Amino acid sequence: MHQNNFSAVLQICNPLTERDICFHTINRVLFVQKTAYQQLHIVESDSFGKSLLLDGDYQASTVDEHFYHEFLVHPALLACAKPAKVLILGGGEGATLREVLRWNSVESVVMVDIDGEVVEACRQYLPEMHQNSFEDSRSEVRIEDAIHFVENTDERFDVIISDLSDPIEDGPSFRLFTREYLQKFRNLLAPGGCFTMQAGSVDFSYLTIHARLVNTVKSLFPHVESYTYFIPSFLANWGFIVAADRPIEPHRDPATIDGAIAEKISGQLREFDGISWLGALHLPRYIREAIAKETEPFTLAEPPKHERLRSGH
Asked: Comparing C-alpha atoms, which of 288, 287, 297 is closest to residue 220?
């Protein structure tokens, strides 16, 4: 555990696929640690401000993390009649927790993250992201394997948010992207509850994963919406999924969405509003065709397999 301030400009090589890479210029490395699970960096750059990197991949930056976290959180809570009790799986930097706590109806939030060292580093070095959400009286942070939590809890939640990373066969959380574990999520939902997940890049190299995840969720929920938004620090259009037992009503008039935001959420959102939500739901043809083509769900016997899928959390 150490802190370094470099006067020289550094570069981080970020592989996009097996054949494509991108270099990010880093002005300062604020914190480096090899945790029990992954390599952790907290860095600062002119392009993206302060950023969290895990195993070399951007997870969140102060410049654009609100793009990711607002679109992960608010569609599901808007679709829920009165979200009071929320479960977050992952979300170590605390920004997902922050967005959930904006909701006036929320009474309690359980956040489960396997890597306590990441949570503590973010608590110390990224206050811009968590904004003291860890200290909120409604928050309960559990340093625990999400698989263990899901298999052993008897709690029920109005909204479950999967902010996990790397749904690939050799990743630590791949089981949580299979039909068997998504069924466990559904079983933890209270009546009228909603489920949402980050569902990977929808760029060509990763589209099959997203499409099959959509169809895996569709095998369990009658009402499912896939949507995307561009995340600059990820260098990708990112996919999300929201699901429920009742209609989600995603195509309401933007002014109605803006009215619900003003009524139910405290503070000012920076990116998510009625127009941007409507735009996120209008999927390009290539994504719609991929979802229609990939009809088989992921299962424990046939889990996600891909050369590489970057984490989104």
From this structure: 297
